[in-house]
């Protein structure tokens, strides 16, 4: 520890790597926090958790008893046990008692990505409601054709304010907050849509996972989906790092072009030079359909064989895009977790160690980019896997019933998990105990009488 | 195996040993050993935590129960152990509380429920003492309590509540005492005055009575009378009665004074004395700021009480304290006065004081008050009665004798009763019959033959109404004939060993249909070979028969001498023996039950092996093991079912039924082929 700090002082370590080193150190020490309790007011299982994206301070939870609540995760409301235990009670909660609240279970509660003034809840009572946080009043109502499984808003969006909603219905609808109407109806799934996720690299790209086992990519500027992930198409491992590849690229470009036009018509993105990294790639995906003539021909009515491809046997229950937008992690009711290369649309064949996933409900995955870990709710346990190797690195045992959702706050390096046992647990890096708080109360010490 | 042992270490074997028991507690020596081993190193502690979790997974509630006890011991002591254990707390709870539907607690159910309640109790305890340091504990507790709604014993809270209630009660009593004290303070002087006035009045009354008594000469007895009472007791009694005679007695002259005195006395005893006593206790108990006033009041009150006591004593001595004696004979008065039985009343009077003392000693004030109330109601009547009584000591002396006599009479009556009981115990129980008409009377009378029963009325000719049956004939006819009934002894069970274990419990007189003639058998069901033993003894008997006979004769003589002593002893011993026999019978029953309980193929196998080993097998069979706890008791129903519902039996029955059907069919339609 001190050596690294010394190195940083000397300028041997760059600030970025120093902070990521500290973060990854902390993340590897995550454990059930003893001195941070979130007091859940919910009387049903917690279905959704999200910390706001602007301040990283307010945790929003949605639960099966049609209630949603907001907590301040940085300032405790009161302390217990001689100030040892910080209790975070909810700042407010809305439930059935609220005149315009939901009637049935809230399956999804998300923050408006731009600020904390709004949040959106989707419920099994077929409604999506947009709430004003300050007045806790419903400001907008969207009636959906069926139970709402998941709602999502793009964290990048600057030009639209769309709520993507996955429902019982086969169609994915985009609800426009600006107009209060459905902007799009995306059809293509053959069964209900369990999970929706916006791309983290392009504000126009939406990813949906359905009960039919398909993961579809939609460019909302165009009709129809442009990519269906196929579990049978795979590449081994992750692509080599950009710098190492740049030499080889020149060869592969021609190859890939020819591959793109083969009979199968793989929906494979043209291998482009993206040495510029993030911003460049984002452009790539956004522009991709427009660029490729082959794709254009294929696009609205893709070959049916392509259209029928599945990513999982059974329903797709969870989706999570990595922060850089290059990879997608999907969880299915076949108890598999798959890592997809978004550039190629291929399954990377990473073998995530044996897990058992909840099949009946959508689950919410979380990713910590610093340590390249994914947190997956596996029944009562949340497991952290290394994204690239699939090795389990940590297991978080604490819930007494199945865990539905987890959220990783990279700002505080804290993990929040919510489950059927109505608890929201905080997992934080362990800190050295300060003993002086102990003195008044019963000490936690060895006590051998004989 | 050895490798495994080594790997699991010392603590593993110790725990294995500790949990492999049917007791409801861990062997304290083993527990101590475990603790000391675990304490020695962290490695052993980790190992212990691991082993304990493994043991908790065993499919036997008893093992889990004992493991849980060990876990609790270590949990309360070691921090490292706690941190290790809370990691898997949900698993531990699932295994001990069994709250997951797919993981119910294993058999046996009785111990499983004990395990559950213990686990819940422990969780509460752990949460109370260490919950603050372990989120997992709080979570588990919260989950079981608020989500699954398990009933926790709530020990701490209950204790706190009781404590709170106690404090509340104390506070209230203090307040009440305080209030009382204030009231007392304000009207202390008036109370004093009131008491003083009563005391003064009593004093005046007593004075009046005494002055009157002066002129009434006491009836004294002559010396020649005195010598009649020879025995010391009688003399004592007489002295007492003389003293009694010296007391002032009520008569028509001082009746009014006595009445007043009585009233005052009553007031004194029932009101003032009690009140003063109460106030003293109040002053003792109350906590007030100014101790000085309290103490002075206390002193005064004690003085008042003493003076009251002395006045009371005065009253009693002066004989005016008649309420006392009156109270004594009220009950008897009602019963006996009408009879005019002099002695019994006096008896009542003289014997009652002792009784009264007892009553007084153990009595609460209220009780005596109520008694006295009753007395006061009857006081008029009583005083009249007493007035009728001549106050002579002579009579009193006689009364003493009477009382003695009567008590003796009572004794004899009691004796009679016991004789009657003896007779009753001895009396034969007979069936009803006509012979009971003249039971016990030796009737030598002839009996008229035609006086009872049918009116014959000349039907068969002239009736001789005077026909007589002679007495001896009657005696002959009345001869009571009973049917000899063999005493039904207990029919011994066959007790032949069954191949599925256990002994044959069929009770037949001579031959068991399954196992042949019934012969004595030992506990394992092996026949005790009688033939050989009799063969052995017989020749001996034959060879020195003469000696035997001589010995026998000597023995007989000696025995006759001893008989008396022995009989006395026997009477004592028989009681003891009976008790012993009962105990033994019980023991045997228990053993039999235990043997029955452990009937299964494996047990039977063990038994077969045991037969060769002999006695040791019985001990082994009775020892309870973990496996035996799981075994179901084989009931008679099970055994019957096994016998009746097997395929062979059902087949046979079906065959029989069809045969029967065929037969009836053939009989009904013999001409159809």
TrEMBL record, chain A:
One of its GO terms (cellular component) is Cul4A-RING E3 ubiquitin ligase complex. SMART domains: WD40 (SM00320). Transmembrane segments: none annotated. Residues 254-275 are annotated as: Disordered. It comes from the Eukaryota. WD repeats lie at residues 99-141, 186-221, 309-350, 396-428. Keywords: DNA damage, DNA repair, Repeat, WD repeat. Residues 254-264 have a biased composition (Polar residues). GO terms for biological process: proteasome-mediated ubiquitin-dependent protein catabolic process; protein polyubiquitination; transcription-coupled nucleotide-excision repair. This is Transducin/WD40 repeat-like superfamily protein isoform 3. It comes from Hibiscus syriacus. The lineage of its organism: Eukaryota, Viridiplantae, Streptophyta, Embryophyta, Tracheophyta.
UniProtKB/TrEMBL annotation, chain B:
Residues 342-420, 520-542, 555-581 are annotated as: Disordered. InterPro entries: ENTH_VHS, UVSSA, UVSSA_C, UVSSA_N_a-solenoid_rpt. GO terms for cellular component: chromosome. It is found in: Chromosome. Residues 527-536 have a biased composition (Polar residues). Residues 352-376, 396-420, 557-566 have a biased composition (Basic and acidic residues). Keywords: Chromosome, Coiled coil, DNA damage, DNA repair, Metal-binding, Zinc, Zinc-finger. Residues 426-530 form the UV-stimulated scaffold protein A C-terminal domain. GO terms for biological process: response to UV; transcription-coupled nucleotide-excision repair. GO terms for molecular function: RNA polymerase II complex binding; zinc ion binding. It holds the Pfam family DUF2043. Residues 155-187 form a coiled coil. The keyword Coiled coil applies. PANTHER family: UV-STIMULATED SCAFFOLD PROTEIN A. Belongs to the UVSSA family. This is UV-stimulated scaffold protein A-like protein. It comes from Hibiscus syriacus.
């Amino acid at each position: 520890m001190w050596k690294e700090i010394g190195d940083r002082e000397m300028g041997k370590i760059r600030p970025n790597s120093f902070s990521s080193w500290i973060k990854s150190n902390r993340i590897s020490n995550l454990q059930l926090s003893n001195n941070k309790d979130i007091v859940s007011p919910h009387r049903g299982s917690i279905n959704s958790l999200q910390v706001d994206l602007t301040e990283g301070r307010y945790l929003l939870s949605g639960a099966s008893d049609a209630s949603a609540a907001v907590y301040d995760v940085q300032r405790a409301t009161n302390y217990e046990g001689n100030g040892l235990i910080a209790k975070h009670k909810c700042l407010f909660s809305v439930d059935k008692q609220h005149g315009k609240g939901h009637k049935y279970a809230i399956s999804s509660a998300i923050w408006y990505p731009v600020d904390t003034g709004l949040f959106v809840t989707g419920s099994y009572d077929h409604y999506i409601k947009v709430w004003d946080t300050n007045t806790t009043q419903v400001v907008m109502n969207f009636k959906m054709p069926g139970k709402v499984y998941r709602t999502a808003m793009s964290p990048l969006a600057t030009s639209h304010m769309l709520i993507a909603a996955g429902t019982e219905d086969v169609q994915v609808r985009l609800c426009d907050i600006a107009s209060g109407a459905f902007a799009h109806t995306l059809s293509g799934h053959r069964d209900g849509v369990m999970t929706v996720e916006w791309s983290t690299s392009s504000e126009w790209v939406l990813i949906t996972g359905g009960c039919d086992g398909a993961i579809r990519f939609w460019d909302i500027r165009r009709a129809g989906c442009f990519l269906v992930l196929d579990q049978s198409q795979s590449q081994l491992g992750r692509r080599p790092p950009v710098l190492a590849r740049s030499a080889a690229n020149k060869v592969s470009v021609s190859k890939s072009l020819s591959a793109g036009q083969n009979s199968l018509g793989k929906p494979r993105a043209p291998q482009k030079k993206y040495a510029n990294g993030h911003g460049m790639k984002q452009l790539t995906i956004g522009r991709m359909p427009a660029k490729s003539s082959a794709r254009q021909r294929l696009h609205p009515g893709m070959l049916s064989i392509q259209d029928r491809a599945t990513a999982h046997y059974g329903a797709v229950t969870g989706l999570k895009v990595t922060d850089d937008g290059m990879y997608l992690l999907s969880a299915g009711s076949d108890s598999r977790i798959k890592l997809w290369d978004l550039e190629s649309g291929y399954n990377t064949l990473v073998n995530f160690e044996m897990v058992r996933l909840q099949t009946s409900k959508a689950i919410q995955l979380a990713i910590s980019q610093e340590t390249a870990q994914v947190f997956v709710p596996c029944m009562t346990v949340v497991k952290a896997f290394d994204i690239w190797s699939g090795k389990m690195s940590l297991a978080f045992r604490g819930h007494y019933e199945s865990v539905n959702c987890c959220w990783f706050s990279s700002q505080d390096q804290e993990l929040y998990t919510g489950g059927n046992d109505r608890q929201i647990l905080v997992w934080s890096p362990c800190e050295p105990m300060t003993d002086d708080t102990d003195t008044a109360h019963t000490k936690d010490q060895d006590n051998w009488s004989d | 195996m050895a490798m495994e042992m080594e790997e699991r270490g010392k603590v593993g074997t110790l725990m294995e040993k500790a949990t492999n028991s049917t007791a409801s507690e861990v062997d304290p020596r083993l527990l101590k050993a475990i603790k000391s081993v675990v304490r020695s190193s962290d490695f052993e502690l980790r190992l212990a935590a691991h082993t304990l979790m493994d043991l908790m997974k065993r499919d036997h509630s008893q093992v889990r129960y004992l493991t849980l006890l060990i876990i609790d011991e270590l949990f309360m002591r070691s921090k490292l152990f706690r941190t290790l254990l809370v990691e898997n707390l949900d698993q531990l709870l699932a295994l001990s509380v069994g709250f997951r539907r797919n993981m119910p607690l294993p058999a046996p159910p009785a111990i499983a429920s004990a395990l559950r309640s213990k686990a819940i109790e422990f969780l509460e305890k752990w949460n109370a003492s260490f919950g603050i340091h372990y989120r997992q504990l709080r979570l588990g507790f919260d989950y079981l309590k608020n989500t699954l709604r398990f009933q926790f014993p709530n020990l701490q809270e209950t204790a706190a509540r009781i404590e709170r209630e106690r404090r509340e009660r104390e506070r209230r009593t203090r307040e009440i005492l305080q209030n009382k004290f204030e009231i007392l303070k304000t009207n202390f002087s008036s109370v004093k005055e009131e008491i003083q006035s009563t005391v003064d009045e009593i004093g005046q009354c007593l004075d009046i009575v005494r002055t009157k008594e002066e002129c009434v000469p006491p009836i004294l007895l002559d010396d020649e009378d005195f010598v009649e009472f020879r025995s010391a007791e009688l003399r004592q009694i007489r002295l007492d009665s003389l003293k009694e005679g010296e007391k002032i007695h009520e008569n028509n002259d001082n009746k009014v004074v006595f009445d007043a005195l009585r009233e005052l006395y009553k007031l004194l005893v029932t009101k003032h004395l009690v009140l003063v006593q109460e106030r003293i206790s109040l002053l003792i108990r109350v906590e007030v700021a100014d101790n000085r006033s309290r103490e002075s009041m206390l002193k005064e009150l004690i003085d008042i009480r003493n003076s009251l006591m002395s006045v009371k004593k005065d009253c009693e001595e002066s004989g005016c304290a008649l309420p006392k004696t009156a109270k004594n004979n009220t009950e008897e008065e009602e019963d006996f006065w009408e009879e005019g039985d002099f002695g019994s009343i006096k008896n009542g009077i003289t014997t009652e004081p002792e009784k009264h003392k007892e009553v007084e000693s153990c009595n609460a004030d209220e009780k005596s008050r109520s008694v006295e109330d009753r007395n006061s109601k009857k006081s008029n009547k009583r005083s009249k009665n007493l007035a009728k009584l001549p106050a002579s000591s002579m009579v009193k002396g006689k009364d003493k004798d009477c009382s003695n006599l009567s008590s003796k009479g009572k004794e004899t009556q009691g004796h009679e009763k016991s004789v009657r009981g003896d007779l009753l115990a001895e009396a034969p129980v007979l069936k009803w019959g006509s012979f009971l008409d003249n039971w016990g009377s030796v009737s030598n009378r002839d009996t008229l033959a035609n006086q009872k029963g049918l009116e014959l009325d000349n039907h068969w000719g002239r009736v001789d109404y005077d026909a007589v049956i002679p007495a001896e004939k009657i005696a002959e006819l009345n001869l009571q004939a009973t049917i000899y009934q063999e005493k039904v002894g207990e029919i011994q069970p066959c007790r032949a060993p069954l191949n599925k274990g256990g002994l044959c419990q069929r009770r037949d007189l001579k031959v068991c249909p399954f196992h042949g003639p019934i012969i004595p058998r030992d506990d394992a069901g092996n026949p005790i070979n009688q033939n050989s033993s009799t063969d052995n003894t017989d020749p001996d008997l034959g060879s020195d028969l003469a000696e035997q006979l001589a010995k026998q004769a000597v023995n007989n003589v000696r025995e006759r001498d001893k008989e008396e002593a022995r009989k006395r002893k026997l009477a004592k011993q028989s009681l003891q023996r009976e008790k012993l026999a009962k105990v033994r019978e019980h023991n045997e029953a228990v053993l039999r039950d235990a043997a029955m309980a452990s009937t299964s193929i494996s047990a039977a196998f063990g038994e077969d092996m045991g037969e060769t080993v002999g006695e040791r097998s019985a001990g082994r069979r009775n020892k309870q093991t973990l496996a035996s706890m799981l075994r179901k008791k084989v009931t008679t129903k099970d055994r019957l079912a096994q016998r009746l519902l097997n395929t062979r039996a059902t087949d046979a029955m079906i065959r029989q039924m069809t045969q029967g059907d065929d037969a009836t069919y053939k009989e009904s339609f013999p001409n159809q082929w």
